[in-house]
Design brief:
The chain is an all-beta fold. The strands form 18 sheets. Strands 57, 58, 59, 60, 65 and 67 form a six-stranded antiparallel β-sheet that branches. Strands 1-11-13-17-16 form a five-stranded antiparallel β-sheet, with no helix packed on it. A five-stranded antiparallel β-sheet has the order 2-3-4-8-7, with no helix packed on it. The longest helix has 13 residues, at 7-19. The chain is elongated, with a radius of gyration of 51 Å.
């Protein structure tokens, strides 16, 4: 079978023959026939092996014709004195032609060119695998510069096994895929010749998988053919694996099954990036539960699971969808701690591969509530609960929805204080997994002759009214705020409610108050917040109050002095920042005041601050004493908002966070640098105000401080 593909060149040849077979020389016509002259020759382009004619005068005297590169032809057909011809040798090259005559050489004015139709006649074998030698038969194959296989894999002629006019031998690259291949002469505008039929490139085949089912993280053998072509192996649910071994015959692959593999087919990816998938799925071995013990188990105790392939389990899930803590694990046994919140139900083992195993349902031990004593008591007194497995109890519920969290130290008995607002009713015990056990008897609760607080206003400003609700509040003689500050102004007072005004000098912050009954009983309230600032207890320990203006300060021009009506202390001044660039900060230099009496052990730094508008985002404001800075406002996460509710409040900072700063200084008046810095890319701190930076003798507070 013969394929001819050089249609352009063939068409050019026919056009040449139709339009004229000769290329004329620019020779001057002579009348004298005895003078040897060449007037034309052709065809050009010509076919090697074909006839080349020369027209002129006295051409029968030509002795030989020399083609380019010295190829001399002496066999000349002399049809007449005006016409001669030769057969073009197959080795002829393009270029000018020279006629040898007795009168001297005659050289053509134009070069001889050739029409070279590259032809693929056949290729063999038609089915190959990587590394095989492919033989391509045809004509003018000596002109071929490369062979391109499907997917663009190119074999350059320098890598051909052999090349001649009639035959090319080329080795099949590992990247080759089934499809047509193309020959190219490598020219700037190349001649491309493609096969009409596909070259079949053999792929690996999978015939079996063993063992199947297989245990993850163990060896799997894949049998088949042509495994030298495999680049990687992919399991369902796992990434491609390149670490495997192939036997000498290329018929078996040994690979370790990944631990997170899922059931499904296996895919081999060849060096040519073709995927070959197994026809049968790979099955996985699952854990098998043969028994669990004990079947009645207590929360917090150890449950033993026996079976096979239990080492595959990565999670043990109990009823209530809670996971237990594995104490020990092997292929045949798992010891696991039953979660405190687990409920009755099956136990499920889960593996990395998604396989599960389920046990029979287990039952969780439930406490018994046998009795309580006394059956009648005054609210606030202790009641003793008796029963079994009471160490599972986490909460005791009384009538009216009152609850008390407990941590019993005994499984048979514990005591709990009855809430002051409790009423007659049954007692309910609640376990950590939500199981409830209710007493059969009713607890009789006698209301004490003392006030009881059930609710309080959560936040209030000095001078404003707050409300205390509860029972027997008509027994309250007086209300005292912290720092032993007695309330003097009230609103409406009833048995269940007291309206009281917070004194202007009440301590700010998270505080409590005390109700004093007529009989001398004192009741401390839950915590609530008094917004505002702490009073300046010792003006002699003031670092700076801004009342003296800017004298002695250096700063970078951001900020100014604020005055009433928004100040913290009457007609005095405070500092207020103005809009600023994120690259700027402000700093007061060389005005850090220290005092010999101030020590870390018994002093803190206090300052009054206000954010007129909330700051949201990545921000920091720092106070610096003696060259050591600490955050009073600090970014924690995206979306954080820092606020004082638009009000003044006092920040208390332990001196210990400043390190050496804040200790007694040899100079009794001034020490190193002190000041403030602000940072927050693109944020506006124009509403940030400060006043009354001072020391105060007190016990340094523990924990978090500042606007967090």
């Amino acid at each position: 079978m013969r394929y001819k593909f050089n249609k352009i060149l063939t068409a050019s040849l026919f056009a040449c023959l139709i339009l004229g077979s000769f290329v004329f020389n620019s020779c001057k016509k002579e009348d004298e026939v005895s003078i040897i002259k060449l007037t034309a020759f052709g065809p050009s382009p010509a076919l090697r092996g074909g006839e080349l004619k020369f027209l002129g005068t006295s051409l029968d005297q030509v002795t030989s014709i020399v083609l380019p590169e010295g190829l001399e032809v002496t066999e000349i057909t002399k049809t007449s004195p005006t016409e001669i011809s030769i057969l073009i040798p197959q080795t002829a090259k393009p270029g000018v032609v020279v006629l040898k005559t007795p009168q001297g050489d005659i050289t053509t004015k134009t070069p001889l060119t050739f029409s070279e139709p590259i032809v693929i006649e056949s290729f063999a074998p038609t089915t190959v695998k990587a590394g095989d030698v492919l033989t391509i038969n045809g004509d003018y194959l000596n002109l071929i510069a490369s062979v391109t296989f499907k997917t663009g894999v190119v074999v350059d002629s320098s890598k051909f096994v052999s090349k001649s006019r009639k035959k090319i031998e080329v080795r099949i690259p590992v990247e080759a895929q089934t499809g047509k291949f193309i020959l190219s002469n490598g020219a700037k505008t190349p001649i491309l010749v493609s096969t009409l039929t596909d070259l079949i490139v053999t792929l690996p085949t999978i015939t079996s998988l063993a063992p199947n089912p297989v245990k993850p993280e163990t060896a799997l053998t894949i049998t088949g053919t042509n495994f030298q072509l495999v680049k990687s192996i992919s399991f369902t649910g796992s990434t491609a694996i390149t670490d495997f071994t192939v036997n000498t015959d290329k018929t078996a692959i040994t690979v370790t099954v990944p631990k997170n593999v899922k059931e499904g087919t296996i895919k081999l990816t060849t060096l040519s990036s073709v995927d070959v998938e197994s026809t049968l799925p790979l099955n996985l071995i699952s854990p098998v539960i043969s028994s669990v013990a004990p079947m009645l188990v207590k929360n917090g105790a150890t449950l033993t699971i026996t079976g096979t392939n239990l080492d595959l389990a990565t999670k043990v899930t109990f009823g209530g969808n809670v996971d237990g803590v594995v104490v020990s694990q092997s292929a045949t046994k798992i010891d696991v701690t039953v979660p405190m919140t687990a409920v009755d139900g099956t136990v499920v083992l889960s593996t990395n591969s998604g396989k599960t195993a389920q046990s029979a349902a287990i039952t969780l031990v439930k406490p018994t509530f046998t009795s309580f004593a006394p059956l009648s008591l005054v609210a606030g007194d202790n009641v003793t609960i008796n029963g079994t497995d009471l160490d599972l109890i986490k909460k005791v519920l009384f009538a009216s929805g009152l609850s008390v969290n407990v941590t019993p130290s005994s499984a048979t008995s514990f005591t709990v204080a009855v809430p002051m607002a409790a009423v007659d009713g049954k007692i309910t015990l609640v376990t950590s997994n939500g199981t409830e056990i209710t007493s059969s008897s009713t607890l009789a609760v006698i209301s004490p002759n003392k006030p009881v607080i059930t609710a309080i206003t959560p936040s209030v400003k000095p001078g404003k009214m707050m409300t205390i609700t509860g029972t027997k509040l008509n027994l309250v003689e007086s209300v005292y705020f912290q720092n032993n500050l007695k309330a003097v102004l009230y609103g409406v007072r009833t048995e269940t409610s007291i309206e009281v005004y917070v004194p202007e000098t009440a301590k700010a912050g998270v505080v409590t108050l005390t109700l004093n009954a007529f009989d001398g009983t004192a009741v401390v309230s839950p915590t609530f917040t008094v917004t505002g600032t702490d009073p300046v207890l010792d003006p002699s320990l003031m670092i700076y109050s801004f009342d003296a203006g800017w004298s002695g300060f250096t700063w970078d021009g951001v900020g100014g002095l604020g005055t009433l009506p928004d100040g913290v202390d009457g007609t005095n001044h405070y500092y207020q920042a103005t809009p600023w660039d994120a690259s700027k900060y402000w700093l007061f230099a060389n005005n850090y005041l220290s005092y010999p009496s101030v020590t870390q052990a018994d002093h803190v730094v206090k300052m009054d601050v206000r954010l007129r508008k909330d700051v949201t985002g990545n921000a920091e404001i720092r106070l610096m004493l003696g060259g050591k800075a600490v955050n009073i406002l600090s970014y924690i996460k995206v979306g954080d908002t820092f606020t004082t509710g638009g009000e003044w409040k006092t920040i208390t900072i332990p001196l210990s966070v400043f390190g050496a700063a804040g200790l007694a200084d040899p100079t009794p008046v001034k020490g190193g640098e002190w000041g403030m810095t602000m940072w927050g890319n693109g944020l506006d701190f124009s509403g940030f105000c400060i006043d009354n930076i001072r020391y105060e003798k007190t016990t340094a507070p523990a924990g978090v401080y500042g606007l967090y």
